[in-house]
Amino acid sequence: CPTCRYKDFDHDEITRERIANVTTPDESGNDVTLIFALHNLCEIDTNSLGLVNYATLLLLILGIVILHYYQENKEVQFDEGHQTAQDYSIVITNPPKDAIDPDEWKNFFESNFRDVHVTVCTVSVDNDLLVKSLVRRRELMRQIEIMLPPDESLDTLNISKIAAKIEKKRHFLDTLCAKIVPGIPELFGQVVVLTSKVQGLAQWSRPAKNIFITFETESAQRRVLKHLSVGMIHVMRNNTSKISNPNHLFRGEKVLNVREANEPSTIRWTDLNQKRRHIWYMQLQTAIVSVGVIALIAMFTAFCKKRSTLYAAISISLFNAIFPQFAKYLTSFESHRSEESTQTSLYLKITAFRWVNTAIIITIVTPFMSTLEPDYHGLISTIYTIFFAEIITVNVLQVGDLWGHFQRHVLAPRCRTQENMNMKMIGQSYELAERYTNVTKIFFLSVYYCAIYPAAFFMCSFALTVNLVTDKFSLLRTWERTPQLGTTLTKCSRKYFFTAIVLAMAISSSYFWSGFPYDNLCRLEGSNEVDQDYVGTWTATTFGNKTIQARVVKEDIAYKFCLQDLLRVDDKVTFPPLPKHQPKGSEWMTPDQEKLVELFGWTSLVLTIAVAIYFACDSLRMVRDLFYYKHECVGKDQKINYSDVDIISAFVPQVESSFFPYPLLCCNTEGLEEDLFDWIDPDRPHEYYDLTLDAERVLKGNDLFTGSNNVFSQIKHWRPENKEDRVV
Predict the structure, then answer these.
(1) How far apart are CA 147 and CA 452, in angstroms?
(2) Do residues 381 and 373 lie in contact, with contact meaning Cβ atoms separated by under 8 Å?
(3) Phi (first) and psi of residue 656, to 5 degrees
């Protein structure tokens, strides 16, 4: 390679070994430097490899389309075979502020719609801050209760007396430890602050924000949705002309924003009343933080890759296990009105990280000429190591369940109460979003590198099989119960990420096939044989100071340096990757390779345009719904009444807390039947978890709280009195 330069190969220790030189005298006695470069003898068999890879792409597209329709049919079958409160319920998100009487809502629907019986009505008011304060106060009182002897009174005066005694006896070290691990005095101090906060918040009037209506029949729900569904623009403008029947205007003047409700267990009641502007602002902030963290971890992975492929694989696997916990913590700062929205946000963060961390960053940090290196520095070796680490590391940590065992076998036996011990036995929480990303991550890794590493499909199938077994074990043995989520997450994965996987396979395969033989060497123009000075056997020294043997005969071919990476030809990205983008005079592709690259290149362009049109049509449908929204029913009416379903729940406002085995209730539960709850505590009544009773105790004798209906959300149940009322 007479024209090759060291700087063209100065990327890492491996590429430095691809160029060598030797100094020897020429015929005139002058010293000349002979340059040698390592040429990869890789010939592409387009029939057995390239075309098979292209057929795999077509099969993948067909498979995803079939999967799409299969899952849609399964969703309908599952919906028809499993009756839930969502099948009978609607939510109204723009009620008049003073519409807090459930009876008024019942009368509105039953008077203006044919054959409608309202069974349950939940009026959610804007009391998020009050509820959060009461929840935190209850949690602090629970912590104090755990620290006290079992029979100790939790009266405020008694706790204040105990706190004063403890604080009086403290020495310097005790005070210092209390700064790190709060004791009873610190916890009680927070209780006092929250008590004052509750007293202030309880004096405000609470406007109605969301109304959940549960009808007795599915047909009633569908009838109401059919007549009241209008575009959001018309709702915001209160365009009464869009409602055909004037009787369907609430109070004769209000256009209601009516949608099908989510499952009761997925509602996040403390975030339900947040303004959309605040929700979007917080999501933007967390997205920026996520991008920053992804960039930092990518830099760390690149640093590990320079040291060792094994270090990089371990780093990737560990961060793939750790980042979901960070993403979950980050998502906790966001406001989401349902658990489905929370899981979707979490899914986006984890998927973006795992795709970048597992697949994309390795391509970026691996030098182009190291792609086909057979040792551990090569890209193929790195892919194999990542697969192996993902199969072993992640699943061993999951099955091992170290924290779960520590809770069950170390912490649980030392708990003071049976309830606390039971909570240690609940099991580890898991996120459906994380399980989805675990599948898409492995699938993405296999299709992204399948052109240069076809065995990735076999590694992928084995990894997914192992994940299925470990997830099934964890689901039945170690994980706790999660809310009943709808189809939002699977639709998001199906619509966006599987589409992106197909596009990624087409584009990555195009560039990978164009780069062969990955040595950045092209035949020197006009050179049918090497210069006479190169003929002979030479002991040359590489740029990395290693000695190699080179034997050159007259019939050998001289080469020159040429950049074979179409992502960086002429310092610009070329898309689609086509043979015509090869620099003139520096062509390196064989005729068969050019045909294959052209096939993949045009296919990737067509798929890119198709995906862009698909997403554009989806966006247009969203815009259309702003003006002409029409509810689409899923499945057939099963003609089963709400009150006849054996296991079903209602929209009872409640908040999950890690200090209690069951949710804390944000509404008055007096008179509510147990059938309306999706949980029952075998040891305590529902009133124990009622936060409205806490408010009454806090404000007792202050005339600040009179039990008025506009301070807390309300729920009212009207069970059908006779069979005629329950006719479908």
Answers:
(1) 61
(2) yes
(3) -75, 145
Looking at residue 7, what DSSP letter applies? G
Strand partners, 715: 122
Distances in Å between the alpha carbon of 285 and those of 282, 292, 319, 333?
Answer: 5, 11, 22, 10
pLDDT score of 116 more than 50: yes
C-alpha to C-alpha distance for 523 and 526, rounded to whole angstroms: 9
Angle formed by the axes of helices 498-514 and 51-81, to 10°? 170
Longest dimension (CA), the chain: 116
**What's the gap between Cα 307 and its chain centre?**
31
Bridge partner list, 31: 25
- Extract the tokens encoding 205: 């009037």
Q: What is the pTM of this model?
A: 0.83
Locus of tokens 């047909």: 219
What's the residue count for the chain? 728
* 269 contacts 280 by C-beta, under 8 angstroms: no
| Band of residue 704 on the pLDDT scale cut at 50, 70, 90 | low
**pLDDT tens for each residue of 606-661:** 999 999 999 999 889 888 888 888 888 888 888 899 998 888 889 999 999 888 88
CB 133 within 8 A of CB 198: yes
Task: In whole angstroms, give the CA distance from residue 721 to residue 728.
Answer: 15
Could you tell me if 109 and 116 are in contact, meaning their C-beta atoms sit under 8 angstroms apart? yes
User: Rg for the chain (alpha carbons), in Å?
Assistant: 34
Residue with tokens 């002309």: 241
Which stretches of 60-163 are assigned E, i.e. beta strand?
A: 89-92, 118-125
Q: How far apart are alpha carbons 464 and 167 in whole angstroms?
A: 56
